[in-house]
Every structure is written in structure tokens, then in C-alpha cells.
Task: structure prediction
Amino acid sequence: MTASPSFKQKHLLGIQDLSVAEIEVVLATAASFKEISEREIKKVPTLRGKTIVNLFLEPSTRTRASFEIAAKRLSADIVSFSGTGTSLDKGESFKDMTLTLEAMRPDYIIIRHKCSGAPRLLTTWTKASVINAGDGAHEHPTQGLLDLFTIKETFGTLAGIKVAIIGDITHSRVARSDIWGLTKMGAKVTVAGPATMLPPEISEMGVKVTTDLTRALHGVDVVILLRIQRERQDSRRLPSLREYARFYGLDGERLKTLPDRAVIMHPGPINRGVEISPEVADSGRAIITHQVTNGIAVRMAVLYLLQGGRES
Ligand code: CP
Result:
């Protein structure tokens, strides 16, 4: 099997690096892979003999499990490491640990790291394909791609779709990947949140910016709620979670103001009662679990298209 000639990347570091044609190839490939997960035997031999290192140096449930399942459905061999229990705990540097892993000749290294730019740095030490599974507040490209896939699956198109992204834009790598992808594909994006969570440079990414939630929600097709990252907050940005929930949380009353067609998305993990009320999270309008299901097909597509081609 050969990957699409339209997809020229060796690594997936960010949606910023992808062309419109490459995004379209990922979405089309994911659509064909989605059917495999509906089969009784959910496995194809596409990546048999390939070795994947899944290196998660920050916590994760969805992304880590999703990559593991995607790899196994493509018959690749995958080994996963988490933040604790690696030689980093014994004082080894990130570079030396990577060189050790490289010596085992992986075909792919999937990495989540707290520092923006860590996946790009890793490409200088390995011949494997590197996939960014979230780096600091920079990008989370497979989350962005699965969000694009889910919106396209819901509305049949991305062009002209009105999307509101609500929450802590400053700390959100998902927001940045979504913005790069959605604007490239012709969607109209508004970001909203408290002024302390809206970085000034975000308007340069081709989005509308507002602190007014009602304005952001007017006439939308898709609302993407972001997790309030408690671990990255201080009291100067956010006086209290209760105040955030009151002014920016999506509850049943605010849900009623949205057009009937509008859907609610969230990359997870969700904070019930903060950015999303339990009533909204459990409603038929929330398609959060569809995002998770689609994440496997999108990650299968990414693994397939990159081909894990080690440089000889
Ligand atoms: N969306 C996301 O990145 O979730 P995890 O942190 O659980 O991987």
C-alpha cells in the first residue's frame, strides 16, 4: 500500500504546517478507516512490522489510548511510556532518553510534552516520523484534525460553518490547532472568553475575538468548549471557577438560545459544572463521544499517511 502523493509530510507537528490538500487527504483517509472500527475483527495488516513509541510525558486518557488502539488496528507494534517511570525520573535528559529510544529503531515516535516545540526538537535526534500529541500551548494536531472530521461528518462541509471556541484560549493547544485547521478549510471562527484568557495575538489568526458569550453564540453551528485548566490558572486570570461557570459556562438556558442545528463539542477531559453543565453534557446536542470515536479513525489515517518511513 502506498500513501497519497498529496500528503508530503514525514512528521505531524502542527496543522499550521499542513496544506488544504493535505488536510483533505487526512479527512478522506479517516473516512475510509472509520469502517474498520465497525467490523467484528477490527484489524488490518497495513502497518505490520512497524514499531511505534508512544511517549506521554504529560497526563492523557483519550489521546494515548486512541493512538494505541489506532496502531493496533493497523497491526503495528506499539510501546507506551508515561510521565513517571521513565529514566527522566533518574535525571536523564530528554535528549539522552530520545537517543536511547532511537537506538531501538522505532518507525514513529508519538510525543506529548509540556514544552511547546519539544516534538520539533525531537525530529533532530531521530529518523522516525514524529507525531505531536500536544506540546505546551502550541498545537495538538490530531485533536484538531478529529474536530475537523467530526464537523465535516455532521454538516457535510467545513466551508462557511460558524464555529465558536469558548474558554481559556491562552493555554489551549487545541484552540490553536482548531483555528489553523478551521480557517484553512473556510470555516468562520469566533473565540470568546474572559479578557485574561484571550491572548492579543490570537486575532492575527483570522478569527473574531470577543469577551461577550451571547455575541459569540449568536447563529453558530458548532460550539467548542475548552477545559478550564485548573493546573495552569492563577487568581489574577480567574477569580473563581464559579464565576467562570456563571459568565462563560454553557448551561441549559444558554443552549436554548442556539440554533436547532448547533452541536456542542469538547476535546475533553470535561469539567462538569464549570465550562459545561451536566444537562448540556448529557444532552443529544453534545457530540463529545463521537469526537472520541472519530479520533481513532483520524489517528489511523495519520499513521498510515506518514508511513513511518525511517530515513536510511
Ligand atoms: N483531548 C485530549 O488531549 O485529551 P487527553 O488529555 O485525555 O489526551
Q: What stands out?
A: The first helix runs from residue 20 to 34. The chain has a mean pLDDT of 93. The chain has two domains: 15-140+292-311, 141-288.
